[in-house]
């Protein structure tokens, strides 16, 4: 099933107009460059379907910005297609993995061999990423892993695997900087709680702590339940001062000026959802791929692979709070640092690292 | 049994063998004529499920013991050959026999307490055993727990069943598997065990009074069925290159293994193959054509088709051809 972005529809009309003009003015006018087909494999049915459908909107948003004229302050945000390919448009072809490794594999194989996509983006779960990345490697087609976080994926020795997003290991690697903060706390005779739990447990934990009168100096949560809006809604002011790691910082618009426009476009596509940790990374995955195709100046697989290997995008040209995007030999982004956010005065603020921080850390919890 | 009846059965069995041989030749040529890797991949899945469902059919069809836990034997086969390969370097072509042996042994272990249960209780018990297997593997770190095991690609090799583009070689690997499963079913169908099973299925008390050893018959059917399923699991693991608990021990897989036999014709020689040849392409093509549009329309169509078939042809698709089950059994009587 192919999904046409609004911009592609416009291009078709334009193409027809060009065709009509060519009839009268002879062969002087060149035909519009062919669309660049990009496959996207996500769970679009079953338990994980809501996440897959958000991913679809995130990718369509990226394609609409690159193809259209939204004039977003980021790399390729000026729109009008890929300049190095004569304004060629990105066309996304979605496939449903049903979250099954086997279906993900056969659908990836279909996208590559039937639809002739130039690259595949995916896939939410690591199990489907394994089979898609292996098929891509065998057919020598790049696989852009948007948000699969298992470190083992980049340890498979695959030369067509590229992951702009940090892995779970990167989060662990970022803990030395956390340790500095923790050491500061320890010096101040403070105590830090570092929970990692789903929404219900997070709510229970914070409420019980309040009930027994225990107030740690800081709560450093690991994403998950603590950043769920339902958590904030349930515990209200008790959430003040809670910190969490994240890979997206919605408040970083001062240093990431593209965020407001991208978020607004995404929000209209999802009927009211803001970009989050997953959708922001999916959006960025297509931006990274489009940049590589543009620099390659062609859709030939080896040229595209070489271009991906030399990717070097500064963080402020994206919507991510990362230092930038640059791949190592395993295809892992080495500039993708996660951030730490804190819930202050009723909103999440980024407090680390300093270059994207919008607030200073507060060392109290609750009000 | 009269001499004339025995003669008719023998003639029909010979005909079936000839049809089987002819079909085998056709299927050997077919992949070469299929131009696209995607369609070749579809053939791999059809043959895999034909073999798996044929295995299920031995126990669930001929012997009438409905199992909803065959993913347990499938998963054991997949994990056994994969671990032997990734941990000890033992080629999957050897590992698949170990996987089959373990699948058969597990089916015996499940059968030992459960065959004393009758009717629906056996089906429920197999369901529970299947889920226990899933939970154990999900929490067992040494076998990769919930994360599963990735089979690294080493080199193009028939011994290791590893191929850069796997679809064409696996068309033949799965064809060999489906053909052997069919041959096993053909052999047991005409054997003493086959007659015992059908007697047990129709009326286990009456058959016992006639001297059929009911419990050993069921155990034999379970062992053969579990072994065929285990071998299929090992082949699947090598084809996909990745196994994790839900995709190899999941309940939905147990249903998918039984479905082709049920739709094609339970307790018949050709039912599982026919069922797989109809169901798998419908499933895969509906995913390809409609899956990208979201909303699960492909799943509704697939489910609707099964529902319609169950209503219109409860005897299975095979009855469209006027073919009856082996020795004049289930198909006609149940229909």
Give the percentage of residues in beta strands of chain B.
under 5%
Taken together, the total number of domains of chain A comes to 2
The CATH first-level class of chain B comes to Mainly Alpha
Number of helices of chain B: 14
Task: Calculate the terminal CA-CA distance of chain B, rounded to whole Å.
Answer: 23 Å
Number of helices of chain A: 11
Largest sheet of chain B: 2 strands, antiparallel
Average pLDDT of chain A: 83
Spatial separation of the terminal alpha carbons of chain A: 52 Å
Q: Biggest protein-protein interface? A: A-B, 38 and 35 residues
Q: Give me the Rg of chain B, rounded.
A: 20 Å
Cα-based radius of gyration of chain A, to the nearest Å: 22 Å
CATH topology of the largest domain in chain A: Rossmann fold
Give a nutshell description of this structure.
The complex is a heterodimer of chains A (367) and B (335). Chain A is an alpha/beta fold.
Describe what you observe in this structure.
The complex is a heterodimer of chains A (367) and B (335). Chain A has 367 residues and is α/β, with parallel strands linked by helices. Chain A has two domains: 6-166 and 256-325, Response regulator (Rossmann fold), CATH 3.40.50; 172-246 and 339-356, Rossmann fold (3-Layer(aba) Sandwich), CATH 3.40.50.2300. Chain A has helices at residues 6-25, 49-67, 101-113, 126-139, 168-173, 175-187, 199-211, 229-235, 259-269, 277-296, 301-309; strands spanning 36-42, 90-96, 119-122, 143-145, 161-162, 192-193, 218-221, 242-246, 313-314, 324-325, 339-344, 347-352. A five-stranded parallel beta sheet of chain A has the order 2-1-3-4-5, sandwiched between helices. A five-stranded mixed beta sheet of chain A has the order 6-7-8-11-12. In chain A, α2 (49-67) links the parallel β1 (36-42) and β2. In chain A, α3 packs parallel to α4 (126-139) and α10 (277-296) packs across α11. Chain A is globular and about 70 Å long. Chain B is built from 14 helices and two strands. The chains are: A alpha/beta (367), B mainly alpha (335). The A-B interface holds A 1-3, 44-46, 49, 52-53, 56, 93-96, 98, 100-103, 105-107, 109-110, 113-114, 126-127, 130-131, 134, 137-139, 150, 152, 156-157 and B 36-38, 41-42, 45, 147-148, 150, 152-153, 164-167, 236, 240-242, 244, 246-247, 284, 287-296, 298-299. Chain A: Belongs to the leucine-binding protein family. Chain A: This is ABC-type branched-chain amino acid transport system, substrate-binding protein. Chain A: One of its GO terms (biological process) is amino acid transport. Chain A: Keywords: Amino-acid transport, Signal, Transport.
